[in-house]
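Q: I have 444 residues here and want to know how they pack in 3D. Can you give me a structure?
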Amino acid sequence: MLQEVAQTIPVCTHEPFSQGRFLHVMTRSYLSGGHTRVVERWIDASPANQRHDVVLISQGKRPVPRLLEKVAQQKNGEVFQLSEGMVCEKARELRAIAGRYEAVILHTHQYDVVPVVAFASEEFRRPVILFNHCDHLFWVGASISDLVVNFRTTTLELGRQARTIQEDAVLPLPMVALPDKQFIQSESATAIKASLGFPSDSKVIVTVASAYKYKAVAGFDFLATIQEILSREPKAVLLAIGPTEQEPEWRKLREMTSGRVRAIGIVPASELDRYLFIADVALESFPVNSPTALMEIARYKIPCLTLRTPAESVDPFIEAGIVCNDIEDLIVRTVSMLHQPQGAEVLYSILQRDALPDGFSKKLAELYASFPVQHQFRQPLPDPVRSISDLEYFIAENNFAQPFTWRSFALGMARRLMTLYVNSFYPIGLTSRHYNYLNSFGLL
């Protein structure tokens, strides 16, 4: 249906394109989160003789990160926005702009149909590369993508089977290097532990993730696992960054362990060093994993461990051998590492080779060399008949396991009201200003 709409846009794009000029397309950019950081680091790691521009489809009045603008300027490019308008108007403008580039790289949100309408055309000739940052969710755009770039190897087969992707590649998630002078502390480890209520001789386990990623489901219970680790190792304590003790389960765990668990909420990046300075071992969240957070910790050469789940499949963790087969394996290895740290150098060397700036630049150069030279969109094939994968089932279980909150209730009601309006009344009463605002959230 979107491809049929695309054929109605009469824009000829046969003007010459510039070699070494690339256009990154984003639905929106953010001041926080990993999505925008990938684009920034991708551009920063690219060769100096290239030009990289960024176009924002539905940024609206949201602030554009200064670092994104800076790295684009350093590559002779700029960050700019499409004009406000309906989907077809934005698609027409995007198609006209993108024809001047050697290649188009999509970092768009999974529900953004503008690129599909823009590039589902035989008139558009420039290759379209899609960075598959939402490989665990439904997304549109496979039919217009000449190359789909994944950040982990294990989702390649799912993309080929479920999305009929024909050309794919893998690019590790990029990371920034630590400053040369790391862990420079104005206070001692003893003082930091004391501020958290931990004894000076305690062994600190650290974990960093959003609170929802720890909600127990399908036999994966992070908090119960921690309680067992603390019972086996009297000197062990847990520092959780992300969750707070306002949440009942974390407050209860602290009470049951006599203060050996502290959940301190989100901390500024500038303060993270302070807490990692006292860490002996880092554990990744589960049942919902947080690989980016664990890789950030691994830069400090802190021993890391994670639990094997249907969703845990990040290449560096598998290669480094830090993925535990089951809960008991995780408990035993964690207790052992608190006394005999091991494996930190192995994981760090892998990240240095593939994800830290020098290594990522080499991986990126290999990817550029594999870019297709011309765009060719294809008709989407019928959905293949197949069984649900372990990854899909696991994600569904986690979604249904999330507890009822007034916020989730309000969001559900808002979606129902929006659906009712679109089905029954749209576009009555909807001004262009309101349309653009709602559409910038992917609601229309």
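Q: Anything worth noting?
A: The chain is about 40% helix and 15% strand. The two ends are 16 Å apart (CA to CA).
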